[in-house]
Amino acid sequence: MGVMDWYPPIEPYDSGMLGVGDGNELYWETCGNPAGRPALFLHGGPGGGLLPDSRRFFDPAAYRIVLFDQRNCGRSRPYAGDPEVSLEHNTTPRLVADIERLREHLGIERWLVFGGSWGTTLGLAYAQAHPDRVTELVLRGVWLVRPSDVAWAFTPAGAAHLFPAEWAAFLAPIPAGERDDLVAAYGRRINDPDPAVHVPAARAWMGWELSANTLLPVPLPDLDDAMLVAFARITHHYIANGAFLSEQGLLGGIDRIRHIPAVIVNGRYDVKTPPSQAWDLHQAWPEAELHIVEDAGHGGSEPGTRRLLIEATDRFRRSR
């Protein structure tokens, strides 16, 4: 296998639903070698759910690969595509607790944690809460969810300068008098019980969220209304609440994980999570290895980014 190639597609050898309290059940699956080194993949979004290619960052002969759909998305239940499903119990501390419950359920003592975009946020939060359970971290497209990071994405002074047409489409559903706080304006619409209101709002919100994910444009995924509503509701829920992080944020807990081997990868032209966030993380955590990919945006599947991520998991498969 060339270093820039995916590992071949694989199917789970085991899967199930895990009750985690608050009326929630999580879909989980395991792939690869049942006797291999445990590795946990954390999907992005939040609310994005699993994709089959997420299994392919790991050597299936070497790793026991664990993946799951986070609360209220993918195959986990109840599903946030139903606007009556409450997100009250969908918070970062509860997702961290879900990961621990899954680890215990699968009988795993320690594992490598791999996350992209929102997965970096959750991976850092989990590692800081349970540093003795993490062998290594592989992080792609760092999202720290500070007020400045949210402002970059949702005010005219940020990414809007680079994608004016997409920003104009994002603004279009919101009257001029409500544009001083677009996150709040969209929240009122995404959470409106009327499908004639929340479906178009979710479609516009996700149009902006999913635009500009890669350096070179790719078609937007074809998501049905329920998937759009679930994705938009969960993503908005976390953005509107500062990802439920403590006041000191993720950089305040670096001393708890400083000893964990880590690789950080970020595209130079990542408009969603600009490399300044990865840089700030590296400044707080110089022991972590930082790679800026000169010909990549935000997507984990872009060749230069994918190569570095697979090189990291290949290197760590030999660790003890």
TrEMBL record:
InterPro entries: AB_hydrolase_1, AB_hydrolase_fold, Peptidase_S33, Pro_iminopeptidase
Reactions accelerated catalytically: Release of N-terminal proline from a peptide
SUPFAM superfamilies noted in UniProt: alpha/beta-Hydrolases
Keyword flag Cytoplasm: yes
UniProt entry tagged with the keyword Protease: yes
Domain AB hydrolase-1: 40-299
Primary location recorded for the protein, binned into one broad class: cytoplasm
Family annotation (Gene3D superfamilies): alpha/beta hydrolase
Keywords annotated in UniProt: Aminopeptidase, Cytoplasm, Hydrolase, Protease
Recorded GO MF terms: aminopeptidase activity
Pfam families reported in the protein's UniProt record: Abhydrolase_1 (PF00561)
The name this protein goes by in its record: Proline iminopeptidase
Gene assigned in the entry: pip
